[in-house]
Write a structure and sequence with these properties.
The complex is a heterodimer of chains A (about 210) and B (about 600). Chain A has about 210 residues and is of the alpha+beta class. Chain A is built from 5 helices and 10 strands. Chain A folds into 2 domains: about 100 residues, 2-Layer Sandwich (Alpha-Beta Plaits); about 100 residues, Alpha-Beta Plaits. In chain A, about 25% of the residues are buried. The longest helix of chain B is centred in the last third of the chain and has 20 residues. The model of chain B has no long low-confidence stretch (mean pLDDT about 95). Chain B has a domain of about 230 residues: Cobalamin-binding domain (Rossmann fold), CATH 3.40.50.280. Classes of the chains: A alpha+beta (about 210), B alpha/beta (about 600).
Chain lengths: ~210, ~600
């Protein structure tokens, strides 16, 4: 069967940030079924619609540039695809655009995050200025120690706000939430509110992942 | 609204998506444009409550009224409860994320007795007093519905009113009345007095209960013109009854994660232990066209790839063959799996096996309930050994190698012979399997026996019967393990601790309210969960209140005793239960309702014959 690769960009915000990666997969499968979209199904004993996510998003983090790759079995316009997806999705997951994939998911190198938070900003700056920011990262092999400072690049900082990058990709990935957990642990003070949004995903050459 | 506060805690709890709402098809309205807000509370966790069909029906029904808003509320698990208490978050509705104490109605659906303590836990978490008398304001009105309110006496002190029977009509009548009383500025008591005049509404505080010296009930006297008997509500035209076009689709996986279509209500069988078989009378079914339309609508609007037909006994639908033909046509074309629970073994055919084979690969389940024909006649199961063997043969021919069998232990008149009968029946099935030349090659047979303990329930012919004592139950369980073929049969038993409490609560009177309160104060909640259940605490609560559970559990109740639920009328007469009880002790069966009317009385109440 002739199929056409397509990359669907979507946002995951509001109440939807608590949907786990596995549940998000099921959610899109159902949305495709509801929308009756011409999406290729895997062959075999238990056929299911083929979708794959470029880069999982951590639970609790919002995203406005998330993407999934799939294959169309019929040519439909990007506009129609977007409209039909959105009619079939819960409110806090919105499809933004759809286009032919340009870069491979393996080329992804980093994520840009924006964080809005309420805490003692002076303490937070002090925390950021330290030589090391030790943290623990859960991996498949157990818990690994790492220094967040080595991987953090701050793009913008003002009271209650920070724009920054962390490495992302299939090889090495840092959950943005780790930084704020580390702050609470090291400073001994509390963050009263925190909203993190992934605003861009970039490839190793600095280009936006498209 | 608690969104910001929740954002601070949700990453600290397991499976946070169940505490935040926002699912597909959940209903959000403008709070300033609604006049009545209803908190539909399922007194158990999200994963269980979201699987419950009644909630889906009533949620959609209320929300179809533009000015009414119904939200869903579940019992949080301890990790979430701890975070809520730490951060001053009161129990909230999943749609608005606003505290339910400000709603007009807080309605609990009571599906099983072991959820009673969760009512108290949820009211407390909502920031409300658990005792109805300590909530003087008109709103919120705390009400309860569902099968357990056929005997709501154990929770009488906590709820303001109960809704007996099917809620599709009466819930809206009740909401309209409260809307009116709110506008008039009446007192809560005035509202309750008026509500008691609506058929199906039971207001426990409007009944005075007196006791005899032997602790049995002497009298139940209605006050303020409340009816002497509260009549259950039923939907007369079941084919036309409201059914949701769509379901809320949870983000996370829940217990029954699929579309569900109710094909019939009621049951023609009259098994003497089964409360549902009487509570949901009369038998009513939907037309095949209606079932088809509802199946398609649900599948298309939810995106589920499985639809389950539900009822007490789906194979008793008068047009089961046609229904399956129509539905498989749709499901095959749409890539949807059709699942058929609740099939009777005596209705099993090759065609049925072929149809369900494509869906269920693991095994088939049959419910003989008792090990000997004598005892199956006592309980009026009306299933013969031949039926069971035939069902198994068809299953094996269809390629199945595993069967699951449901039995009950402790049934009235049961002897060790009946227990041994379970083992013998299993052995006959094993022998049958190995005698079949066309059995699945190279595979052994696996039988799973699920052995529950009989719990006498109100509104059954066995409502007068005792549950055997702990010693007897344990001895019989032990004996079964000694005589059963342990190589091929695995047996799972229900825990005495759990069935004992369930038996006490099921047939309790309103003096048990203080026991439930005491148990909850000791930390009892989530009693349906083995990891949270605290039997010792419950027994302590009974002792401290000076109440012996044996009075409710192990005592034969004479036919002329005033039972705690006698002032409820589920449209089946007490005389019928007495007649059926006598027949049980004589080992005589009663034919199913379609064959011959047994005269339970429901047809007189409905004003027409059932068939």
């Amino acid at each position: 069967m002739e199929t056409k690769n397509i990359r669907v960009f979507f946002s995951k915000t509001g109440r939807a940030i608590y949907i786990s990666h596995l549940d998000l997969y099921r959610l899109f499968q159902r949305a495709i079924k509801r929308a009756k979209l011409p999406i290729w199904e895997t062959e075999g004993f238990n056929p299911h619609v083929y979708i794959t996510f470029a880069l999982p998003l951590a639970l609790g983090t919002a995203g406005v540039c998330e993407s999934l790759d799939t294959k169309l079995t019929e040519d439909i316009s990007a506009d129609e695809l977007v409209r039909r997806f959105n009619d079939a999705l819960p409110r806090d997951i919105r499809v933004i655009s759809a286009s032919e994939p340009v870069r491979k998911p393996t080329e992804i190198a980093l994520s840009v995050y924006e964080a809005d938070f309420e805490c003692d900003d002076a303490k937070f700056d002090e925390f950021l200025a330290a030589e090391h920011i030790p943290a623990e990262k859960k991996t498949k092999r157990g818990i690994a120690e790492l220094d967040l400072k080595e991987h953090l690049a701050i793009l913008e900082r003002r009271p209650g706000f920070m724009r920054f990058t962390f490495p992302s990709g299939s090889q090495f990935n840092i959950n943005a939430g780790l930084l704020f957990d580390a702050f609470e642990r090291i400073s001994g003070t509390e963050i009263f509110s925190l909203h993190i949004t992934r605003t861009a995903i970039k490839c190793s050459d600095g280009e936006i992942f498209r | 609204m608690y969104k910001d506060k929740l954002d601070r805690i949700l990453l600290k709890v397991q499976k946070p998506s169940r505490y935040i709402g926002g699912e597909l098809n959940s209903v959000e309205k403008d709070r300033d444009k609604v006049t009545m807000r209803f908190a539909f509370c399922f007194p158990d966790t999200y994963d269980i409550g979201m699987s419950h069909l009644g909630m889906k029906i009533l949620y959609s029904l209320i929300n179809e009224v533009p000015e009414y808003w119904c939200e869903r509320v579940f019992m949080p698990l301890p990790d979430m409860e701890e975070q809520m208490r730490k951060n001053d978050i009161l129990l909230y509705g999943l749609e608005s994320l606003e505290p339910i104490k400000d709603f007009d109605f807080i309605g609990f659906t009571l599906q099983y007795e072991l959820s009673f303590s969760n009512i108290l836990a949820m009211l407390d978490l909502a920031g409300l007093s658990v005792y109805a008398k300590d909530r003087p304001d008109l709103t919120p009105i705390v009400c309860a519905g569902g099968p357990c309110v056929c005997n709501a006496e154990p929770i009488a002190d906590f709820v303001d009113l109960c809704i007996l029977g099917e809620g599709e009509e009466v819930n809206l009548e009740l909401m309209r009345l409260l809307e009116k009383c709110k506008a008039e500025g009446t007192t809560k008591r005035e509202f309750l007095i008026r509500a008691a005049q609506i058929e199906g509404i039971y207001v426990p505080s409007l009944y005075d209960v007196q006791y005899n010296d032997d602790n049995t009930i002497k009298s139940v006297t209605p006050l303020e013109n409340a009816p002497a008997k509260v009549k259950k509500r039923i939907i007369k035209d079941f084919d036309k009854v409201y059914y949701p076009e769509t379901f809320v689709v949870p983000f996370s996986e829940i217990v029954h994660d699929r579309a569900v279509v109710e094909v019939l209500r009621g049951c023609i069988r009259g098994c003497r232990f089964c409360q549902a078989g009487y509570l949901y009378r009369p038998f009513r079914e939907k037309a095949v066209g209606t079932i088809e339309k509802q199946t398609i609508s649900l599948c298309e609007t939810t995106g589920y790839d499985e639809v389950s037909l539900t009822s007490l006994s789906t194979s008793d639908h008068s047009e089961i063959e046609k229904m399956l033909a129509v539905l498989t046509d749709y499901s095959d074309g749409a890539g949807v799996n059709l699942s058929l629970p609740s099939l009777r073994v005596d209705k099993f055919s090759k065609e049925l096996v072929d149809r369900i084979k494509s869906v269920r690969k693991s095994g088939l389940t049959f419910a003989p309930e008792a090990g000997t024909q004598r005892l199956r006649d006592v309980i009026n199961k009306n299933i013969t050994e031949e039926n069971v063997m035939n069902g198994c043969r068809l299953a094996f021919e269809g390629g199945y190698t595993a069967v699951k069998l449901y039995f009950m232990l402790g049934l009235p008149t049961e002897t060790m012979e009946d227990i041994e009968g379970i083992a013998e029946l299993c052995q006959k099935i094993i022998d049958l399997y190995y005698s079949m030349p066309d059995r699945p090659k190279g595979k052994g047979i696996k039988i799973s026996v699920s052995l529950s303990t009989f719990i006498p329930k109100p509104f059954t012919p066995f409502q007068f019967e005792p549950q055997p004592t702990e010693d007897v139950i344990r001895e019989r369980q032990k004996h079964l393990m000694e005589v059963i073929n342990v190589k091929k049969v695995t047996v799972s038993r229900s825990h005495f601790d759990v069935t004992h409490l369930e038996a006490a609560l099921a047939r309790g009177d309103r003096r048990l309210s203080k026991v439930i309160y005491a148990a909850w104060k000791k930390g009892c909640k989530l009693d349906g969960w083995s990891e949270y259940y605290q039997y010792d605490k419950w027994m302590e609560a009974f002792r401290e209140c000076g109440i012996d559970p044996a009075f409710y559990v192990n005592r034969v109740r004479p036919y002329d005793e005033v039972l705690p639920w006698d002032h409820m009328d589920i449209l089946v007469s007490k005389d019928f239960y007495i007649r059926e009880n006598k027949k049980a002790h004589e080992g005589r069966t009663t034919p199913n309702c379609r064959e011959k009317c047994a005269g339970c009385g429901v047809n007189k109440c409905v004003g027409r014959p059932c068939f």
